[in-house]
Amino acid sequence: MIPINIYKIPTLILLALISSGIVSCRKTSEIDIPSYLYIDSISLKTTGMQGTVSQKIVDAWVSTDNDLEGAFELPAKFPVLKSGASSILIQPGIKMNGVSGNRVPYPFYNSITIPVTLKHEKTDSLINLQTSYKSNTVFAWLEDFEDPNLSIDTTARGSIKLTRYNDPSLASAFPGESNLYAARVVLQNDSVLFECVSHNSFVLPNNGSEVFMELNYKTNCPFTVGLIVYGAQNTQQDVVVVNPSRNWNKIYINFTPTILLNTNAVKYKVFINANKVVGGPDADIMFDNIKLLHF
After folding, report:
1. pLDDT per residue over 42-93, tens digit each?
2. Predicted TM-score (pTM) of this structure
3. Which of 135, 157, 120 lies closest to 49, judged by CA?
């Protein structure tokens, strides 16, 4: 290789090389300077036939111009290595089955698309975001316990009756909604079983299409939610154990894997059951706003 003596390079060429190097460095550094997005929360809008607006959207799954930036726990401020006009797509995320380590975009909520002009070192705040249910969502079952004629009741195995209860805490838990009643059961004896089941049976898709149940609850005792499977042989299969929560909480229960294990089933019913913790205090279980959803 022949060594280059910069003193023999014509001045204009040397200046051009230096200028080119400076421009190149500037471009590299600008690429590494992030823009920022801030998302505080995502609310839910429903129609009159879709039940409560109660939701537990905990994450935003964010893409810019079809590039996934990541899943961010809300509220979140995060960097984006882009600038200029961009299309931001936000998918509302949940904890599937109430498990913190199992976070996914909720398949029944619409994504939110927002045009944004990103600027290096500047923050764009995306506030008052709102999602809704996808138009092809099937609401197979809704029960909010406002009507005295309940669509779920105690089974023959259960020795404790399910009651319709006017809970004062519902007003603050679901502000702006006419939500006065919930289902309640109190277990005082260690040996008794509480169990209730939906009156109706449901034909649910067994092709891998998502099937979820949404449920609000407040309980000092674990309880189980599952499916009664009707087919060549009827079986009762637990799906998830719901852990205690002092305040009203919400869970999204994924029935899809259980249904895929029972492809010959012809119909299903939903059950909820519980036993009191042995030696513990009286079990006080309340639940509300049941939604059984599929496509």
Report:
1. 999 999 899 999 999 999 999 999 999 999 999 999 999 999 999 999 999 9
2. 0.89
3. 135
The CA–CA distances, whole Å, from 68 to 72, 105, 191, 255, 281 equal 11, 13, 51, 27, 48
Q: Which helix (H) or strand (E) holds 265?
A: none
Does 35-132 carry CATH code 2.60.40? yes
**Domain residue spans in the chain?**
35-132, 138-294
Strand, helix or coil for residue 83: coil
Top pLDDT among 82 and 23 is at 82
Specify the length of the chain in residues.
Answer: 295
Give the strand pairing for 84-95 and 76-80.
unpaired
End-to-end distance of the chain based on CA atoms, in angstroms? 68
**Cβ atoms within 10 A of the Cβ of 221, count?**
21
For 239, the token pair is 């799906």
Smallest Cα–Cα separation from 94: which of 84, 107, 85, 105?
105
Confidence of residue 21 (pLDDT cuts 50, 70, 90): very low
Query: Which of 14-23, 106-115, 186-195, 202-211 has the weakest average pLDDT?
Result: 14-23
Are residues 214 and 137 in contact, defined by beta-carbon separation less than 8 angstroms? no
Residue 31 has what pLDDT?
67
Tell me which residue of 101, 66, 100 sits closest to 86, measured CA to CA. 66
The fold of the 138-294 domain, in CATH, is Jelly Rolls (2.60.120)
The Cα 219–Cα 214 span in angstroms is: 16
Place of tokens 């009664």: 228
Q: Do domains 35-132 and 138-294 have the same CATH topology?
A: no
